[in-house]
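Whether sequence alone determines local backbone shape is best considered at the level of individual chains. When preparing material for the folding task, we compiled for one chain both its residues and its backbone structure tokens. No coordinates are needed to read the tokens, only the vocabulary itself. For completeness, the protein is quoted in full, as a sequence line and a line of structure tokens:
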Amino acid sequence: MMYVLKLPYPTKSNNELVRMHWAAYQRHRREMDAIMQAERRKVGLLTAVGGERRKVVITRYGPRTLDHDNLVGGVKPLIDALRGAGVIWEDDPTHIDLEVHQRKSTGGHRHTRVEIYTRSV
């Protein structure tokens, strides 16, 4: 089964995260935690249970494309928020099959789409 969670803005690049003041980074993480918790409840996704493996596909729709290391490093707070919300059991390769993509978005359609597959596909 597939569930779609939406972050109302594109994930930040790894460079942006590394350069953030520690307090701003903590605020960013808390905001993302709250959004993912609300999204999980909104779509009716049950929390992951002991050792369950899930596939997660993250697609960033941003104003520009990022190089690969900035893209992948930038989703770390989102992955942590998914774990905190119980969407994934752990963020290691035995519990999550992760794909990260990006698309250039024009206009006001900038966001991040998170697809959760409850069975490994």
In short: DSSP finds four helices and four strands in the chain.
